[in-house]
């Protein structure tokens, strides 16, 4: 009688566990299906999801073990998410839990008997229960917890004409809400899903409005919200091209300011043609864009918004500018072409070695540079300032004029002379072998020519218009042409002592 009763108890225990196995496998599959759908992924098989972690032993119960059971409360929600577990088996002892099972041997994990756990980060988690039957047989069960992101949505509002606004969610890649609830601040509400992250709305008046956007997850219905106050009388600042810099003969760089962070499109005009899109877009508040240029063609650029409600807010127009330097024996010839839109120009300057060298008048486009330092290049650059931008031309570096550095070796000019009539060093004269023409110019401290040599008078006697010149320092410019036509120039100072 006792034996039959014992066999009957074993039979009912096995039958109970068979029932638990079937129900738990079905429950886990349904749970995973719900969580997969919640994350926006199509559910195919339970084993497919199990491959998301290595050696997921929730999928297969090892031989000699049974499938257990437990109840999970609050398995879907926003972080921080507090869940509660409880045992659902009559024949279950030594109940222990792993709240973040990541695969592998579960008996290598630290377990807890606590029935509550709080998840602080978003993600999908496995909860595993380890227990024993009253007969000492090991058993396990798994559930899935989905912790959703509750980051507040970020959005931008573009104020258009006639009280219209365009709203755009800007951080959906972080929040991943299934839908967004927009409270426009006048009692009306718009709900938009994740497939369309922008909305348009038109107000009946132009008073300030407080717009609230709440991100919302389905099923759990949780999420966060953020608020902005807008003025419908605000005039949008147009984007602007603040700088055009020519980098070399074929490349330039535009610096673009985009205060409203609109989606902008870059346009180019060649010569006197029409502006055509280059297909380049700009979205950041400040951005640099490389463009192709050509020294033989005039290119002009502008940008405008793609959004139709502010398409009229076009930027300023900037055009390319190039500098030409022609090296000559006695000077470097610097020239440039007039700017395409003269009325836009505020100032024009040519810099030499990054220092202002020439400020051309409105009708000046050429100047000779007779200065230079032997053995060192001079680098020239044109800088045009318009109403809203700076245009920098190409930078050209050349050596000094050859006449400054190829001086006749035998040419000598004294540093001092004393025109006092004592017959010693009374004249400023060039010493050396001169086999060609020569010219000497003497300047006073104000740059006026006070002596010019001629065929009959080749040396300065220290007088100005027949009167003795005061003692001091004077500048000279000596030009010598040799027999084969080479021209040499020497500049310097001489002291007149009395």
Summarize the structure in words:
This protein is mainly beta. It folds into 5 domains: 143 residues, Immunoglobulin-like, CATH 2.60.40; 76 residues, Immunoglobulin-like; 80 residues, Sandwich (Immunoglobulin-like); 81 residues, Immunoglobulin-like; 91 residues, Immunoglobulin-like, CATH 2.60.40. 10% of the residues lie in helices and 43% in strands. The protein has 4 helices and 37 strands. Strands 16, 17, 20, 25, 26, 28, 29 and 30 form an 8-stranded mixed sheet that branches. Strands 1, 3, 5, 7 and 8 form a 5-stranded mixed sheet that branches. Strands 31-37-36-32-33 form a 5-stranded mixed sheet. A hairpin with a 4-residue loop joins strand 16 and strand 17. The longest helix is centred in the N-terminal third of the chain and has 37 residues. 24% of the residues are buried. About 9% of the residues have low confidence.
CATH superfamily of the largest domain: Immunoglobulins
Residues in helix, %: 10-25%
How large is the share of residues in beta strands?
35-45%
> Average pLDDT value?
85
Low-confidence stretches: 5-13, 15-51
Task: Give me the secondary-structure topology.
Elements: H1 2-38, H2 46-50, E1 66-67, E2 70-73, E3 76-78, E4 81-87, E5 93-101, E6 116-119, E7 123-132, E8 138-148, E9 155-159, E10 164-169, H3 172-175, E11 179-183, E12 189-193, E13 198-202, E14 209-216, E15 225-230, E16 240-246, E17 251-257, E18 264-270, E19 276-282, E20 286-292, E21 299-305, E22 318-319, E23 323-327, E24 332-336, E25 345-352, E26 355-358, E27 366-369, E28 378-386, E29 390-392, E30 396-398, H4 402-405, E31 416-417, E32 437-443, E33 449-452, E34 463-464, E35 467-468, E36 472-481, E37 487-496
Parallel strand pairs: 1-8, 3-8, 16-29, 31-37
Antiparallel strand pairs: 2-4, 4-6, 5-7, 7-8, 9-10, 10-13, 11-12, 11-14, 14-15, 16-17, 17-20, 18-19, 18-21, 21-22, 23-24, 24-27, 25-26, 25-28, 28-29, 28-30, 32-33, 32-36, 34-35, 36-37
